Amino acid sequence: MRVGIIGAGVAGLATAKTLLQAGHDVVVFDSAPDVGGVWSRTRRYPGLTTQSARATYGLSDYPMPKDLPEWPTGAQVQSWLEAYTVEFGIQPHLRLGVRVERAAREAGRWSLTLSTGGTETVDRLVVANGVFSEPNLPAFDGADEFVAAGGQVLAGTDVHDAELGRDKQVLVVGYGKSACDVTVPLSEVAAGTHVIARQLLWKVPRKIAGVLNFKMLLLTRMGEALFRYHRLRGVEKFLHGPGNPIRRSMLNSVGSVSKRQFKLKRLGLVPPGTMEGIVKGAIGLATEGFFEGVEAGTIVVHRDTTIVRLSARDGRPVAELSDGTVLPADLVVCATGFRQGVPFLEADVQRHLFDERTNFLLYRQILPLGVDGLYFNGYNSSFFSPLNAEMAAVWITAHLAGAVPLPDPGAMRRQVEAQLAFMDVATDRHHCRGTKIIPFSLKNVDEVLDDLDLNISKRVRAAHWLNPVDPSAYRAVTPTLVARLRAGDGVLQDA
Ligand SMILES: Cc1cc2nc3c(=O)[nH]c(=O)nc-3n(C[C@H](O)[C@H](O)[C@H](O)COP(=O)(O)OP(=O)(O)OC[C@H]3O[C@@H](n4cnc5c(N)ncnc54)[C@H](O)[C@@H]3O)c2cc1C
Predict the structure, then answer these.
(1) Phi/psi of residue 266, each to 5°?
(2) Which residues cross the membrane (predicted)?
(3) pLDDT tens track for 281-319
(4) Would 328 disulfide with which of 162, 169, 177, 198, CB 3.0-4.6 Å?
């Protein structure tokens, strides 16, 4: 089949590779001029690194080079993905700098209208357009007056060079990983740097107590099991039963360490709630130099505060905060999250995609209900996003061959709704409209592979209980599927 893929981030590229290996033709569109999505030069802000440690942010048959730092920079991740397209022959299938404006169902195929003015017809369509792709800029009152006075408002992803902030009064809005990351390099050149944080979040030290790499705690199966899933197995039953006090103290001890390590009490930056609250989808790795900057006075955090209005005073741009403070502000950088949409899909397709709260309704985070020939990838954002995306690509490849046994449509819908209801409670609705699966990344990998009877051995999974998950443990999955499909084995339903 000829499969169209929208997006050349890690999800689109992993999908392309897997489908090519299974003998399909693919065409991958990206509006950016380079591959990599989040890591593209068009979206990288200074200070951007992965949160996941290098060895865990990998593809099963293409780990990141060992000579890269433990937390590779955005540019390094982009180069690695660029090299992936060469290694697996994806390059001739790329259409970079081409936006898909419209995707319409026509006679069982998809007709794509492209920003170049051309069209393309494909048999199947994979939407891998990224769930953290379109920045969500707040609409500030008074923005016109502020801009007329020389002020500038930018999304964090539009700040490609810290020099933009040189000698300026900079305000960074947000307290997530991106906000803290972009603050540090700006604070090194700015006249003043203020962070406007509506809500403080817990930050996990990269090295807990300066010694233990956080991957040993949170990027293991044990780390995942500290959070209660709706179906408990084996040791999880103990951890969420008699072992509950141990489990809680393991999690909350990270909070105490974080408090001590970053002197949060002295800095007045202790977030509300317990560390267990990181499950609410708000986990962030601490940015090197952030709390040090706060201590040194080069970064000022305004906690529990928002910008209520941008304006001008004496012809100079200023920001008025909810606590009455007025700050001079030449540059306002908004690291205020992303907006997720599929504007290229027509209304009659879109109506199948969402529930009444506009959560995405996707079986296994992949398959929309009631739309044939359409798949999503990357809508399973996790602690191990490349691995989740790659295993979703395997599932899509199997589904194309009719090799995924599925429940009947009613049961599928009930399962999707039950999963969303569970995530509502487990993450306090911080699941980005059903597209983020943290902290249950590996549950998703297991479910996807169990569907295909392709899960890795229990022995290796057990090894991942205490050691960080190694995506290369999954390198036999795609070849095994491809061999099975070639042998005509495992075809369980009509394609
Ligand atoms: C700052 C940041 C740090 C992160 N760090 C980690 C981490 O450490 N570990 C982790 O597991 N995850 C991390 N993530 C999550 C991250 O989203 C995934 O790791 C992964 O990069 C997402 O890949 P993707 O392919 O799904 O989406 P993206 O990388 O966003 O790629 C989607 C692509 O689709 C293109 N596109 C969109 N619409 C169209 C259209 N209509 N036509 C053509 N092209 C289109 C976009 O241009 C983009 O290039 C991070 C995310 C962010 C924002």
Answers:
(1) -60, -35
(2) none
(3) 566 789 999 999 999 999 999 999 999 999 999 999 999
(4) 169
